[in-house]
């Protein structure tokens, strides 16, 4: 019996968006209008690339960024939930599928000592250049028309499950925990017997409800959460079964 827990990161594990939180490092803690308005739907990674250039041009260094990022609060109950998963790793494989980036997620998880809870993190690769600027790349190229051009979370989830199967690991149940519009695609991939856990009041919950109203509901079961305590209660039930 092994369960796969797939987590989104922003507004799910942490209670903020890591990409907008970094703006606290900018002069006067805001971006110029021209830069702010340069975002085009589906092209978030390129937009963040421009934000990082602006921060670099204004002398914002790696250590300041790191200090700022590690002050982001975890979502209510999340610290307890991750502690619980960490103590039961023989039952849970745990991955992150996120549109953030490797540098931010790494800093945040390591600062709180949660990096060992996760088996893999799938997110946009980022690194600091020789001149000290943070750079970010698209996670992959894909053909899914519904997802941002840099990341289709369904593809990531499917590839991970397939790879695990090749290594003889099959999951009793997949639990997908997220909040955003880009979490709908992987939720649509879940089968009967799997669980989608959308965060209450966020886009994913609304999109799942809309599908049910349109009489094309998702195949998996849906369990809404407002605090990670709700998720932990469900996982404790799973283990008891």
Secondary-structure-derived class: alpha/beta
Cross-sheet strand order for the largest sheet? 3-2-1-6-7-8
Rg from Cα: 18 Å
Please give the largest β-sheet: 6 strands, parallel
CATH homologous superfamily grouping of the domain at 3-15 and 74-125 and 146-239? HAD superfamily/HAD-like
Give the DSSP E fraction (strand runs of 2 or more residues). 15-25%
Q: Kindly state the mean pLDDT as a whole number?
A: 96
> What would CATH call the class of the domain at 3-15 and 74-125 and 146-239?
Alpha Beta
Topology pattern, helix = H, strand = E: EHHHHHEHEEEHEHEHEH
The strand count comes to 8
Description:
Belongs to the HAD-like hydrolase superfamily. PHOSPHO family. The active site is at 8 (nucleophile), 10 (proton donor). Its cofactor is Mg(2+). The protein has 241 residues and is α/β, with parallel strands linked by helices. The protein has a domain at 3-15 and 74-125 and 146-239: Rossmann fold, CATH 3.40.50.1000. 39% of the residues lie in helices and 16% in strands. It contains ten helices and eight strands. It has helices at residues 18-21, 33-36, 44-57, 62-69, 78-87, 102-111, 153-166, 184-189, 203-213, 228-240; strands at 3-7, 92-101, 120-124, 126-128, 134-136, 173-178, 195-198, 221-222. The protein has a six-stranded parallel β-sheet with strand order 3-2-1-6-7-8. A two-stranded antiparallel sheet has the order 4-5. α9 (203-213) links the parallel β7 (195-198) and β8 (221-222). α5 (78-87) packs parallel to α10. It starts with a strand and ends with a helix. The mean pLDDT is 96.
């Amino acid at each position: 019996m092994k369960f796969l827990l797939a987590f989104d990161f922003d507004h799910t594990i942490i209670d903020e968006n890591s990409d907008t939180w970094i703006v606290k490092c900018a002069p006067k803690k805001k971006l110029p209008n021209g830069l702010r308005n340069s975002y085009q739907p589906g092209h978030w990674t390129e937009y963040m690339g421009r934000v990082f250039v602006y921060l670099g041009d204004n002398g914002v260094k790696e250590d300041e960024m790191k200090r700022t990022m590690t002050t982001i609060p975890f979502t209510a109950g999340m610290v307890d939930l991750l502690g619980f998963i960490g103590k039961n790793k023989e039952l849970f494989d745990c991955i992150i599928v996120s549109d953030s980036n490797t540098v931010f997620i790494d800093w945040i998880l390591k600062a709180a000592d949660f990096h060992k809870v996760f088996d893999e993190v799938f997110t946009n690769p980022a690194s600091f250049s020789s001149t000290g600027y943070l750079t970010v790349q698209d996670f992959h190229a894909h053909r899914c028309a519904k997802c941002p051009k840099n990341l289709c979370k369904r593809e990531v989830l499917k590839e991970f499950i397939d790879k695990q199967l090749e290594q003889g690991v099959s999951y009793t149940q997949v639990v997908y925990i997220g909040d955003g519009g880009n979490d709908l695609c992987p939720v649509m991939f879940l089968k009967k017997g799997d669980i989608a856990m959308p965060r209450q009041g966020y886009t994913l919950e609304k999109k799942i409800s809309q599908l049910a109203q349109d009489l094309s509901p998702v195949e998996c079961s849906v369990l809404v959460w407002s605090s990670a305590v709700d998720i932990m209660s469900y996982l404790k039930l799973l283990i008891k079964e």
